[in-house]
Amino acid sequence: MDSIGRSSPFPHIVVASVFSNDVEQRILETLESAAWEKRSSSFYRFGVPREGQFDRESLVRLVNASIAFDELLSLAERTFVCRLASDPRLEIHKYDPGCGIGPHTDFGSREIRCVLSLNRGWSIEQGGVWILAADSRLRSGARYLPSMSNTGFMFCTAENSYHALSTCSDTMYGLTLRLSRL
Asked: What separation in angstroms does the CA of 9 have from each of 3, 138, 156?
């Protein structure tokens, strides 16, 4: 796994080549064969696996066994100067055309989040660009992260850790590892 730390607009780590090519393909096949249900509110629209019709535990085991988790945990603890629980929770999202997420911080949770993108050949025309900023209008120090497959970012939830996903025009998936701060 390759990574680079950045301090602006808030401390975060950009990660790439998180999974081997084989594991990336297995995860994509699992996600593509799942049954999904839509979730939406005033600021987000995405799909989640349909309960009872998706083997979530198998995917969690695959992700946990395939990611260099100890390396990821150590990197996050050093970068964000905190201790983390070693039992991540996994959120799984599907972003179909028209889906996206508005600016928010996840501030209510004392967590480090690792947001990973998976898809079949992302291009700028597909949308789904992650925007990181220090303000809710996404203008202060904005950074743009393409949703290229097998890449992502890690950040500490905070009052100014605004992030959003621009509207997608093609299908892509997101895995979010949620690590509790101790």
From this structure: 17, 10, 12
Residues whose CB falls within 8 Å of the CB of residue 123, separated by 6 or more in sequence, listed in order:
none
pLDDT tens per residue across span 127-173: 999 999 999 999 999 999 999 999 999 999 999 999 999 999 999 99
Domain ranges in the chain are: 2-180
- CATH classification number, 2-180, choose in 3.90.960.10, 2.60.120.620, 2.60.120.10, 3.40.50.80: 2.60.120.620
What distance in Å separates the CA atoms of residue 107 and residue 110, rounded to the nearest whole number? Answer: 7
pTM of the predicted model over 0.90: yes
The pair of three-digit structure tokens given for residue 121, joined into one six-digit string: 């050949």
Instruction: Give the integer Cα–Cα distance in Å for 164 and 180.
Output: 21
Nearest CA-CA partner of 115 in 68, 70, 173: 173
Residue 131's region, left for phi above 0, alpha for psi from -120 to 50, else beta, is: beta
